[in-house]
Task: structure prediction
Amino acid sequence: MKRQIILVTGPARSGKSEWAETLAVRSHKSVIYVATALLDSNDTEWQARIELHRNRRPASWNTVDVPVDLAGTIELANESSCLLIDSLGTWLANILALDDAAWRQTLQDLLSSLQKSRGDVIFVAEETGWGVIPAYPLGRLFRDRLGTAIRELGAIANPVYLVVGGHVLNLSVLGSPLARG
Result:
């Protein structure tokens, strides 16, 4: 069976993680949940969000914390595994301090790892660019880099899903892909 690269994107609290979890179960493969969040014991609200995700996952899933090296983790996947990476935006926040050249190389390494991987990979990604342009440079940098990463992943993923308001749209069926930028 051919391996899959799947992208699930949408706004906050839309149901994108739940949809990605459903897709992981449907893969009938050994699921490895790749958590990109950095744990902060002083942030109780953040801890509650992480716990919500943990409680929803089946006990049979293996969880690995990978706040930075997604490419290395993806390359290690085998045919019998499905990596569920939640989330791309959190991963980006962890490496936002990279300069432009290092960022471009890191994104290229991520995309290259998908070509080498033998396992299925499901990405959860936040859509942040639907509102006003952030008034501060770091916010604009985050939004622009995340938008670029989502577009690059969307060019090689199939299917690409948009989850909004608890509804799932398969963009690979409903839309037409743009040329890679």
